[in-house]
Write a structure and sequence with these properties.
mainly alpha
């Protein structure tokens, strides 16, 4: 975590909370939504535990982030993301690849930074329809 704190102090594009949220959303996607293909650990990757990992594509992680953000922040999700420096799905890719560079996340040879680009439009993805129901 020290490496991440140092990195966030140098690269001020995204707040620390944005990185933490991406970690939480990844866990949410794997455990709550059952997303991701099971991938056996590779001994050459230096996995401490030999348990299978669930791997998400960039598009899958963006969708999990959207669902998790709406659950956590409701109609304020887009505003929260903007405060953290996130205005497009490509920003999630920047965050993930920063974490990969810091060796806090892993990728497969098929993963690309561009997998996160233009997955959805923030205005559409974080708009919720609210109905006000008056008592009879």
């Amino acid at each position: 975590m020290d490496a991440l704190l140092k990195f966030v102090r140098r690269d001020r594009r995204y707040k620390l909370e944005a990185y933490q949220f991406v970690f939480e959303a990844l866990s949410y996607a794997q455990k709550e939504l059952g997303m991701g293909q099971v991938r056996e650990p590779s001994h050459d990757e230096g996995d401490e535990d030999d348990e299978p990992q669930r791997h998400l594509t960039g598009q899958e992680l963006c969708e999990a982030i959207r669902v998790f953000a709406l659950e956590q922040f409701g109609y304020m999700a887009k505003t929260v993301f903007k405060d953290w420096g996130i205005t497009r799905t490509g920003d999630f890719g920047e965050i993930v690849y920063n974490l990969i560079d810091l060796q806090m996340m892993r990728k497969t040879p098929q993963d690309r930074r561009e997998d996160f680009d233009d997955v959805y439009d923030f205005d559409t993805a974080f708009r919720q329809e609210f109905q006000i129901t008056l008592p009879d």
